[in-house]
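Worked example (supplementary).
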Amino acid sequence: MRGDPEDFELVTARTLEEACDRVAQGYRPLAGGTDVMVLLSAGKLAHRKWVDVSRVDQLRLVHAGERTFEMGALTTYTAVRRHPLLSRELPMLAQAAAETGGVAIQNRGTLGGNIGNASPAADSLPALLAYGAELVLASRRGERTVPYADYHTGYKQTVAAADELVARILVPRGDPARVHYYRKVGPRRAQAISKVCFAACAEREGGRVREVRIALGGVAPVPLRALEAERAIVAGEPAEEVSAALGRAIAPIDDVRSTAAYRRRVADNLLRDFLRHVVPAS
Amino acid sequence: MAEPVELRVNGVACAPCVHPMRRLLDVLREDLALTGTKEGCGEGECGACAVLVDGLLVDSCLVPVAQVRGREITTIEGLASGPTLAGIQQAFIDHGGAQCGICTPGMILAARELLERVPVPGEADIREALAGNICRCTGYVRIFESVVRAIELERSGRAR
Amino acid sequence: MASSIGTSVPRKEARAKVTGRARYVDDVVLPGMIHGVTVRSACPRGRIRAVHYGDGIPWDEVTVVTARDIPHNVVALINDDQPALADGVINHPEEPVVLLAHPNRALLEKARAAVRIEVDPLPAVLTLEDSLAGRAVVWGTDNVFKEYWVRKGDVDAALARGDVLVVEGRYATGAQEQLYIEPNGMIAVVKPEEGITVWGSMQCPYYIQKALIKAFDEPAERCRVVQMETGGGFGGKEEYPSILALHAALLASKSGRPVKMIYDRAEDMAATTKRHPSRTLHRTAVTREGKLVALDIDFAIDGGAYSTLSQVVLSRGCIHAAGPYDVENVRIRARAVATNTPPHGAFRGFGAPQSLFALERHLDVIARQLGLPPEELRRRNFVRKGHTLATGQVVREDVDMSGLLERALKASDWKARRERFAEENARGGPVRRGMGLATFLHGTGFTGSGEKHLASVVGVEGTVDGRVRVLAASTEIGQGTSTIFAQIAADALGVGYDDVDVATPDTRDVPNSGPTVASRTCTIVGKLVQQAALSLKAQLLADGVLVEPYDPAQLRSACARYVRERGALRATAEYAQPRDLAWDDASFRGDAYGAYSWAVYVAQVAVDATTYEARVEDFWALQEVGKVIHPLLAAGQIEGGVAQGIGWTLFESVAWKDGRMINDRMTDYVVPTSADVPPIHVLFEEHPYEGGPAGAKGIGELPMDGPAPAILNAILDATGLSLERIPATPEAVFEAMERARG
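After joint prediction of all chains, the assembly is encoded as:
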């Protein structure tokens, strides 16, 4: 343990208002702790002031509206997996939750924390992108809703203002017949940081794809939507064109976990496999 | 700044006076002298520090103690009642689930949590439930066997 | 009294472990205890210009130890070329330079971060290849710690024959981190009137004692070492703990307080020993019928910056390089060389996994070239009784590798599965499956004259309470030492397993029965336990206090009576080299090991064409081991070893940058989880070896030798890709596929 708790301040918020006040004062929200506490143990936690938001019950609520799921930022991976409707209608999110860490991490890790940490290798973020999620950001100044696709602007940079925190995640409830395709590729079967993560959701009409969202993790500084590839699929272009479009969208790197060449090829393999699922002729 | 943090640990109320950001792992081991919970990595990767908080398995190296104020915490020391071992503990002895023993407390708690959730888990359930607890000695084979036998012990009523 | 040998009695150690009551070193707090940490170099090689102690730390409260504080700055092992603390010169990243101690651990970490070591860099050698090529000389005159040659027959003549095919190959293995889940830790107390006492996580208390004696210039009676419950070792706690013990004792000596030093995971991974990386060149002459005529092998291992145990790892790797085959002409050149990386060290298998990987991979390459099935090539070359191994050792046991192979092929349904997979693979699809095998041996005990030099001693005593106590330095580190020693002693004495205790390995109380390494504990030391127990029984009978036939209760009361009336009741046994074992160190010829265990391992592997991941779906481990003393423990050794072997082959990759391991966290150094290991089918066969208790041979390291080549041979079967290095990560499989495509 290289960090010293005495160097830090941890206050508790009991309501969303309190949490927003604290964030405005320069405290950062601490929920499951699965990222922050690793840094503390390693002696690498730079920020000193933290507000424990784990007791803000309104951030834990999951509401299934007629057209939209509303999940509080404190929704844990375990809560996603155990929610009968979420796990049935958003299987990619449930799968991502099942493949994040192990049970002990899933019991603590939260969607809000995952989004706030903004790692390009996070497992649930591509699923949220592929489901067309929106985020409700809260501050003392009120709440605003942003499309999640616009949220990440650069490596660990987001559109959230310094005094805003992620309060809720909204995911439209879609056509039950839509196709979900999620695959996380990591160094082992469980408890692993992803090398490449692929999530795609498509709605079909007749024999063609009417609407599709494709999102990837691990191939760019941010989790990203492959917009050009999506348009190519809807336009009915052949697999080679879709593949080329994807290739232009991603910028994988060599790092301690994997290589750019591997990530690029696997992303492409997953795309082609998805195409075979969703457009049988291709 | 230290403050009293009220906890119930293995059924006993206590209120160690500690900094709120202290890791639950350190509070258990150092302030409460419950050294059965181990530190293997400090990253939430190995599971040796796993405990139950309100029945849920968590890695105590990742939990700031303030967050478990008022909660019920179960460590390995809380499983046996006196000389009578819990079924899962006896099964680990009988079927070689422990070799060096350092992963064993966390592993037993992970198995225990599984069995509370899924009384008759299949092999895939067991593998998944234990995937956050790394064992370097056993290759997991005897651990799976121990969990399966613990289920039999429980069902036959021969265990707590 | 029925013997417990061959049955799975409840382990002596088990209850404490499942209740959390087992006490590991970090669980202990002594009154007045303070903490210690190590300040290490960042650069691989250079001269220390200065050490700066930064501002903001109350340095007057901190105990500081440097090389100047050490009476004899050396870590005693074999060549004594490693200092306990760097003195003027840095030879590897993470080399310890300064030790600090203070009561407050958090402050201590800040103090550690505040020390800056200023180094003038020198050219460093960072890879095995660069060291062999002599890019720079960083040790001795040519970077070579040790070189051995094995010569049998006339390899050059055989290679030149007209009726042979010559097949070449080049194989490499990467470093592997032992990753015991309990990191290294020690507590030291120094009292002027008593001397030094050290408690901690370790495999070899007497190695540590030897290091303390040398460094502190103290006699053995003033250097006491006590093993605590140890959370895994695998060789990683064989020689390394001597360094940590010296460090803790230095701080304890200077501060006058008990000192505890516990490494966190990052420090343990980056600074302590790993498996030696290796590279092996093969040139093999084989007839068209598949008879191996000559093996020409160049085996090299990277020892890191100091010699430590590299020559012994080299020795075992060299001797195992020719495997379980009858080959008339063998030449093995083996070298251990220096690089500016943290010294590599003992890890289960100790050189044999590295050289056997190369051989077993190479045989499949040869089989393909000849158009022979891999099992058939093995069958045509196995040694049998009367054949000689590479060092000239005559095989005296009736080894039946062909029979073992048959049974392994049958158990794994080899033929049917291979046929089915070939069909399925041909149809295309996202997964390719294959079967692979490895056939191998592993020598029990120290190589050659090693056991003779160790001259191990074991004691067995009777106590005044009528109990029997085994006194040995062998440590329980998860493998069940105390349990099997109790079984062996009970069997020899005719008492119950529960009547026997095994003393904690404390150098004050137990004789030196040698280190807990080299697959020697059950066979070599266990045999001494048996002999000492028989000797104790003889003493009681000779005295008349016990009469045959007797029951356990009678022996127990005889012990009690003897101690009450005559005093201490203790018998010892000392290792005597069997007369028919002869080894010559100078020529490296003769009987390398008293006994070998023999094995055939089979792997079924699936390679995913989308992600290039290879996955072991099923695994069979068959071995002939003399005698299984405790079935559950024995199976546990094989299963655990196979899992570590799978890790080494497919998952575990050390990422090096400037000689330092940069993936020094468990998040980034990936070992198999419960979701990654296949079913492992273990089968034992027993041909008793008279030199082992009840006929037992060693098994601790054997399972490390088979998985890597079996898995890569399965990948060859599945995909046609002949991978030559491990780890065979998905990235490596992908790159190999790209290269194969052209």
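Two points are worth noting when inspecting this output. Chain C touches chain A through 32 residues (CB under 8 Å). Chain C has three domains: 14-21+450-574, 32-122+184-262, 278-447+587-741.
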